[in-house]
Specification:
Helix content: over 70%
CATH architecture: Orthogonal Bundle
Number of strands: 0
Shape: globular
CATH topology: ABC transporter involved in vitamin B12 uptake, BtuC
Radius of gyration: 20 Å
CATH class: Mainly Alpha
Length: 286
């Protein structure tokens, strides 16, 4: 049996990995979202409201809150099609602030007092199941026809469109999918933290997701879990930086952008390692 402290760390690594994937998924179509914290907040608040106010079973609340966040993501995704790059980041940050203020002023969701009396329903098992499903779906998606279409959009969306790829459909789909994943992460977070307020889902939360994904690498499906695991563990191992973790993350990102801008894990890293090992074994006279 693992200790409660270790279990807590593993749960937060799992939730942070889910949140990192919520940024990684729209990035597969070159959509840089700065508002994933808002979708996380939608999932958290609505899941909490369903279980506390209406006594809906947690698995149902988890799925419904994820779908609600995804639906909002689709609605935001349509106007996001008109802009890209820095302007998309600014637009999504603005949307995130609107959502934060909504929860801050909504009496139904506790307003400035926050939402309390949430049951502790998040376990290591359900976090692992949700994360496993997300990785499975993303892995299968990237190795399907849609995956090749997403790769084409990421390289050059105009060229992809001339090849018959429905750019509008896929961009909105991936933006909504990323929002749904953030909503699932928010629901799991709410039922482990047991108290939430609007500040939990502000600008800093969205930036954390960006840092987790970029640090690990956004060209590989294994980048987000690597980045989330390392950056969740660091403040725990080095307890003295707990209060300064955002400063630490910022300095770490400066170093990463200077020396390894592609992130810790690249798309062909494991393939290159395996092929190099294979060549060494072939050339081994033994």
């Amino acid at each position: 049996m693992i200790s409660p402290y270790t279990e807590s760390i593993l749960i937060f690594i799992g939730i942070n990995t889910i949140l990192a994937y919520s940024f990684y998924i729209p990035m597969t179509t070159n959509q840089i979202s700065g508002g994933q914290g808002a979708f996380m907040g939608i999932g958290a608040y609505f899941s909490a409201a369903m279980t506390v106010n209406y006594h809906i079973p947690f698995p149902v609340a988890l799925v419904v809150s994820g779908l609600m966040a995804g639906g909002v993501g689709v609605l935001v995704g349509f106007p996001a099609l008109r802009i890209r790059g820095l302007y998309l980041v600014i637009m999504t940050l603005g949307f995130a602030e609107v959502v934060r203020v909504f929860f801050l002023t909504s009496e139904y969701f506790g307003a400035a007092y926050g939402f309390s009396k949430i049951q502790e329903l998040t376990t290591m098992t359900n976090v692992a199941v949700v994360l496993g499903l997300i990785i499975f779906v993303v892995y299968r998606l990237e190795r399907s026809y849609l995956g090749r279409a997403l790769e084409a959009i990421k390289e050059n969306d105009l060229a992809a469109e001339t090849l018959g790829v429905n750019i509008t459909k896929l961009k909105v789909l991936m933006f909504g999918f990323g929002a749904m994943v953030a909503g699932l992460g928010g629901a799991l977070y709410a039922h482990y933290a047991l108290f939430i307020d609007s500040n939990n889902f502000g600008f800093h939360r969205s930036i954390e997701m960006v840092i987790f994904a970029i640090f690990g690498g956004v060209t590989s499906i294994w980048g987000p879990p690597v980045g989330a695991a390392i950056l969740t563990l660091f403040p725990e191992v080095l307890r003295f930086i707990q209060e300064w973790r955002m400063v630490f993350y910022g300095l770490l990102m400066i170093l990463m952008m200077t020396f390894r801008p592609q992130g810790l894990v690249t798309k062909h890293m494991f393939k290159d390692v395996l092929s190099r090992r294979g060549r060494q074994e072939v050339g081994d006279p033994a």
